[in-house]
Amino acid sequence: MRVVVAEDGVLLREGLTGLLERFGFCVVAAVGDALALTAAVESHSPDLVITDIRMPPGFTDEGLRAAVELRRAHAGLPVVVLSQYVQHGYAADLLDSGDGRGVGYLLKDRVADIEGFVDALDRVAAGGTVVDPQVISQLVRRRRDPLSALSAREREVLALIAEGHSNASIARALVVTEAAVGKHVGNIFAKLRLPQTDDTNRRVLAVLAYLKQLPLASLKQLPLARPDVRLAAGLREAHCEIASDYRAKSRTISLGATHPISRPGGEAR
Predict the structure, then answer these.
(1) What's CA 18's distance to the chain center, in Å?
(2) H-type alpha helices, 163-269
(3) Are 106 and 80 in contact (CB under 8 A)?
């Protein structure tokens, strides 16, 4: 079986190459970065690719992104990725590529189980799917929590939206531009999969998604909406309602239908 190995650590790359050759694999290329990985696959047309996730130049997810692109460019190319971490977004893309066949996602600790590791390579090369149990656990947990896709800043923005702040108010609180806040809000809508329709208030739905993930005690402590914010009149009442049955809620909650907000000067709207 012809194999391309991509690993930036020289010792691990050489050790992995020696291990594979000892078990009868033919390592046609052993490279240290994602660009070299792509070039090696184009040059050698291997039967299997084994790649690390974090490689030069950024040491983030270059290897995993390269694996996803290689799977798109070469239908059916078996790929096994190795990492000390679970990269959720690209892990899902990798597992979805090619109908999920001929793909493996293993943590580097599994390499210590040599027989199990070699067996996993054989299974992936034959079109099977091998996923580390820890990877499965984290992916399942992430899908149960829709907010896990949000960045730390996006969570911060969403929390302020839930407190009733407008974009301008959030910009002042975070010392950023209102345009930056608008971009974060757009990202929140996209990651929560809240498309714009005539009868859907995405801002309200995003708040509901946020509230559903809060402990009950935290819900009761959220502040009232500010008078100058159109998000949710009667937000406190909605919080209490969600606190009582937010896990089982399946109906849409209309915020502000029966609780007018007083404008400066006493005029209600």
Answers:
(1) 34
(2) 167-174, 178-191, 202-212, 216-220, 235-245
(3) yes
pLDDT of residue 161: 84
Sign of the Cα torsion 192, 196, 199, 204 reads positive
CATH of domain 2-144: 3.40.50.2300
Let me know the angle formed at the C-alpha of 92 by 87 and 94, rounded to the nearest 5 degrees.
Answer: 95
Residues in the chain, pLDDT under 70: 85-92, 99, 135-145, 195-201, 211-269
Can you tell me the distance from the alpha carbon of 163 to that of 203, in angstroms, rounded to the nearest whole number?
12
Strand partners, 173: none
What phi, psi does 239 have (nearest 5°)? -60, -45
How is residue 178 annotated by DSSP?
Answer: H
The correct CATH number of 146-245 out of 3.10.20.880, 1.10.3980.10, 1.20.1250.20, 1.10.10.10 is: 1.10.10.10
pTM, to two decimals: 0.54
Q: What is the spatial distance between Cα 87 and Cα 38, in angstroms, rounded to a whole number?
A: 20
DSSP string, 62-130: HHHHHHHHHHHHSTT--EEEEESS--HHHHHHHHHGGGG-SEEEEEGGGGGSHHHHHHHHHHHHTT-EE
